[in-house]
Amino acid sequence: MLQYITIPGAVISFVGDFSYIKDTLKGQTKPNRVTFLMWSIAPCIGAAASISDGVTWAALPTLMAGILPFVILLVSFYNSQANWELHWHDYFCGGISLLALVLWKVTHQPVLVVAFAIISDAFAGIPTLIKSWTHPETETPFSYASSLIAAATSFLAIPVWKFTEYAFPTYLVASNLAIYMTIIIRNTMKKRAL
């Protein structure tokens, strides 16, 4: 019965990402396109690997963590003011992220697939974490808080605690918490500086 808790979690994630989409359409939020491209790929692979290993409802938040960033990526092309200028570290992290995705292909082992998907997603997120520190006003913190909550619902749906079930949700909680806290701390620091 607890596995269905992931459905409200997916709704919470959708609401948070909808606010990110709305802010992107207004040009207030400026997604890093390298991050959101890779964030759309890695979780979908992680979810597919989890499902292939027998995971059911616990894979839903991970799948949503891939679909919604793809929508955000697409929306970022709609408003030219929502464009974030990419730098060498964005491309470097994107390249490492892509390499991790290629490595999963040669393994065909669900555990390694999930591990490489996490590595890929983490490297994809580094540019947004950096941007959250340098320009927190270009991010929507509510979106990361809602994604954190959605990922946490996975833990209630895990029937057997094995790596393919808990690894990606654990990573999603940690990464969303890190970005959320970075935005909040930096916004607070900037307000105090004024």
Describe the structure.
- It is a single chain.
- The protein has helices at residues 6-26, 33-52, 60-76, 88-107, 110-134, 141-153, 163-193.
- Helix 1 runs parallel beside helix 3 (60-76), helix 2 runs antiparallel to helix 3 (60-76) and helix 6 runs antiparallel to helix 7 (163-193).
- The longest helix has 31 residues, at 163-193.
- The chain is 76% helix and 0% strand.
- The model has no long low-confidence stretch (mean pLDDT 83).
- It contains seven helices and no strands.
- It has one domain.
- The protein is globular and about 50 Å long.
- It is an all-alpha fold.
- 49% of the residues are buried.
Number of helices: 7
Rounded mean pLDDT is: 83
Major sheet size, sense and barrel closure: none
**Relative helix content:** over 70%
Category from helices, strands and their pairing: mainly alpha
Percent strand equals: under 5%
Report the C-alpha radius of gyration, rounded: 16 Å
Shape, principal axes of CA atoms: globular
Helix and strand pattern: HHHHHHH
How many discrete structural domains?
1
Stretches where pLDDT is under 50 for at least 5 consecutive residues are none
Distance from first to last alpha carbon: 50 Å
Number of beta-strand segments: 0
